[in-house]
Amino acid sequence: YEAARNIIQKSGLQGIYRGFPTQLVRDTPANVFYMILYAFFQYESQHWLPLVPSQIVNFVGGGIAGVLSWISIMPFDVVKSKLQADAQGNRYKGFWDCARKVYASEGLRAFFLGIVPMSIRAFPVNAVTLMVYTESLIYLKKLELDEG
């Protein structure tokens, strides 16, 4: 509540939504890529790893999909974070202005700083999330078939 009040006092209601368009541009393709990678991993594992339990396949597939989707959107995340941190809104004019200034001052590497900690965090989070989701669907489908 206090943070929201401070943002509104300093930047108006518009300040609450600073960086939202960039986050939308970041998250939409990331989620599409995430689910496509996961579905592809599941499909291929049925052919190449038929003896591996589904829990392991779903865990590894979710982790890999999560890390690769995050890597694909890291530059957008950096720009989004810098736009959101620009509390006064006077450092950057928008997404492309921010991206150009970051590249000019810090180089291409700036868009991928933190890739190792991000990967260490993303793998288990996404692995567990998609494993639990998929295994829950399998369990619920079995319940439905047993009742029907």
Automatic annotation (TrEMBL):
<dbReference type="InterPro" id="IPR023395">
    <property type="entry name" value="MCP_dom_sf"/>
</dbReference>
<keyword id="KW-0677">Repeat</keyword>
<dbReference type="InterPro" id="IPR050567">
    <property type="entry name" value="Mitochondrial_Carrier"/>
</dbReference>
<keyword id="KW-0472">Membrane</keyword>
<keyword id="KW-1133">Transmembrane helix</keyword>
<keyword id="KW-0812">Transmembrane</keyword>
<dbReference type="GO" id="GO:0031966">
    <property type="term" value="C:mitochondrial membrane"/>
</dbReference>
<dbReference type="GO" id="GO:0022857">
    <property type="term" value="F:transmembrane transporter activity"/>
</dbReference>
<dbReference type="InterPro" id="IPR018108">
    <property type="entry name" value="MCP_transmembrane"/>
</dbReference>
<keyword id="KW-0496">Mitochondrion</keyword>
<comment type="similarity">
    <text>Belongs to the mitochondrial carrier (TC 2.A.29) family.</text>
</comment>
<feature type="repeat" description="Solcar">
    <location>
        <begin position="53"/>
        <end position="139"/>
    </location>
</feature>
<protein>
    <recommendedName>
        <fullName>Solute carrier family 25 member 45</fullName>
    </recommendedName>
</protein>
<feature type="repeat" description="Solcar">
    <location>
        <begin position="1"/>
        <end position="44"/>
    </location>
</feature>
<keyword id="KW-0813">Transport</keyword>
<dbReference type="Pfam" id="PF00153">
    <property type="entry name" value="Mito_carr"/>
</dbReference>
<feature type="transmembrane region" description="Helical">
    <location>
        <begin position="110"/>
        <end position="133"/>
    </location>
</feature>
